């Protein structure tokens, strides 16, 4: 279990992490969700003792990282990709890691088998694809058979097969009773991967909730209605106590009304009883991504299908469907190292951030000093 209390990190005038309090429980995958720059990597580095909090603290199983006697056996992490020496093979790299952490050599073959790298374990890591490098990173994280695992943006840059593999693998680790904490800026990915979500924006906690509740609350439905007598229609609907919002005309669509907490049937019948002509009556599901951007105060544009999905809040017109390296595994103390405007509860595809930021994390020194600051500038 991971517990953060009032966790804060300031870099000069920037408050990267602002009084975060949350807990990550074993036995399930917990997603750490926030737009680029929200403070996810900084939080993970503090969990791993690579950055000192400016205030507050974070504990793993009740102890600070620096106080863990054998950190590699308690927590494993995948932070940054491609940090393995290119001329080393996966096996020799793992043997070196194991030896430097007093882990029996036979564990190397076990973890190679677990991540599916046995067949290529003798090949130089420099020739590995990103997906293979990810697996190697995970193998390093698993060397000490830790009960707590951290993954920072593990699917960045992976192909669909690699994404599926990582997702299933995290489920398996959680099923084994481990604490699995995975960061992402992709709500659509987290919706498929995590049972629990910790959502942050600009360093602050926005929500800690089950993924199911988050999706339900973020994908409220609304009814869009328009006709030649909008003002009268507005009066009829509000007269029935309905929450009605005006959607001004845009280049693409004429002015309309957005009605929440109702159905197309009810709106149509109310209009019919007073003889109002309607030109449009549609139900829209809020886009999860738009809800996410709103909640996180995101200043990041999310794009999918070639258009920008950032825009009005769910249920607000103007938006379709709605209203509108690895990593290098970071083996403590041994080494470290995007959907568009979907219309359903779970957006159909990944969201690609307009402003891309690569996976964050610290390089993987073979034996990081607990508590040592890992500066971004020092990243490989
Ligand atoms: N070493 C550092 N020095 C100065 N500012 C930093 C440092 N590390 C992070 N920041 C700033 O802190 C904020 C949070 O960054 P962080 O990398 O933790 O966010 P993130 O949610 O992981 O984003 P991303 O997905 O883009 O990596 C950003 O404004 C970032 O520029």
Automatic annotation (TrEMBL):
State if Nucleotide-binding is listed as a keyword. Answer: yes
The UniProt regions of compositional bias labelled Pro residues, in chain numbering, are 329-351
- Cite the entry's keywords alphabetically: ATP-binding, Nucleotide-binding, Transport
Alphabetized Pfam families for the sequence: ABC_tran
Q: Where is the ABC transporter domain?
A: 2-227
* Entry-linked Gene3D superfamilies: P-loop containing nucleotide triphosphate hydrolases
Going by the entry's taxonomy, the superkingdom of the source organism is recorded as Bacteria
Region span, Disordered: 303-380
Q: Which InterPro entries match?
A: AAA+_ATPase, ABC_transporter-like_ATP-bd, ABC_transporter-like_CS, P-loop_NTPase
Q: Name one molecular function that GO assigns to this entry.
A: ATP binding
What residue ranges carry the coiled-coil annotation? none
Q: Where is the composition biased (Low complexity)?
A: 304-313
Which stretches are tagged as biased composition: Gly residues? 316-325
Describe the family membership recorded for this protein in Swiss-Prot or TrEMBL. Answer: Belongs to the ABC transporter superfamily.
- The protein, known as: ABC transporter ATP-binding protein
Give the lineage.
Answer: Bacteria, Bacillati, Actinomycetota, Actinomycetes, Frankiales
């Amino acid at each position: 279990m991971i517990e953060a209390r009032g966790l804060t990190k300031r870099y000069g005038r920037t408050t990267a992490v602002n009084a975060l309090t949350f807990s990550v429980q074993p036995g399930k995958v917990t997603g750490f969700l926030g737009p680029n720059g929200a403070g996810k990597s900084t939080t993970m580095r503090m969990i791993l003792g690579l950055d000192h909090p400016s205030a507050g603290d974070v504990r793993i199983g009740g102890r600070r990282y620096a106080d863990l006697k054998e950190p590699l056996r308690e927590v494993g992490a995948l932070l940054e990709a491609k940090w393995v020496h290119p001329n080393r093979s996966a096996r020799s790299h793992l043997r070196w890691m194991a030896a430097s952490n007093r882990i029996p050599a036979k564990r190397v073959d076990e973890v190679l088998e677990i991540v599916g790298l046995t067949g290529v374990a003798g090949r130089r890591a420099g020739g590995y694809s990103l997906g293979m490098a990810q697996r190697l990173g995970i193998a390093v994280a698993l060397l000490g058979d830790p009960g707590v695992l951290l993954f920072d943006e593990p699917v960045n840059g992976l192909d669909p097969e690699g994404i599926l593999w990582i997702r299933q693998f995290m489920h398996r680790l959680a099923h084994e009773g481990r604490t699995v904490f995975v960061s992402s800026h992709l709500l659509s990915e987290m919706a498929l991967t995590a049972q629990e979500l910790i959502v942050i924006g600009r360093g602050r906690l926005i929500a800690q909730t089950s993924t199911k509740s988050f999706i339900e609350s973020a994908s409220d439905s609304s009814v869009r209605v328009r006709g030649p007598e909008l003002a009268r229609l507005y009066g009829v609907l509000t007269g029935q106590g309905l929450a009605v919002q005006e959607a001004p005309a845009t280049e693409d669509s004429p002015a309309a009304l957005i009605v929440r907490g109702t159905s197309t049937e009810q709106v149509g019948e109310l209009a019919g009883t007073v003889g109002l002509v309607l030109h449009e009556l549609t139900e829209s599901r809020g886009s999860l991504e738009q809800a996410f951007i709103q909640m996180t105060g995101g200043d990041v544009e999310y794009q999918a299908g070639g258009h920008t999905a950032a825009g009005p809040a769910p249920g607000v017109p103007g938006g379709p469907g709605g209203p509108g390296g690895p990593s290098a595994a970071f083996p403590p103390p041994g080494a470290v190292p995007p959907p568009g405007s979907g219309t359903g509860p779970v957006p159909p595809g990944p969201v690609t951030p307009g402003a891309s930021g690569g996976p964050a994390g610290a390089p993987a020194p073979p034996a990081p000093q607990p508590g040592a600051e890992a500066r971004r500038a020092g990243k490989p």
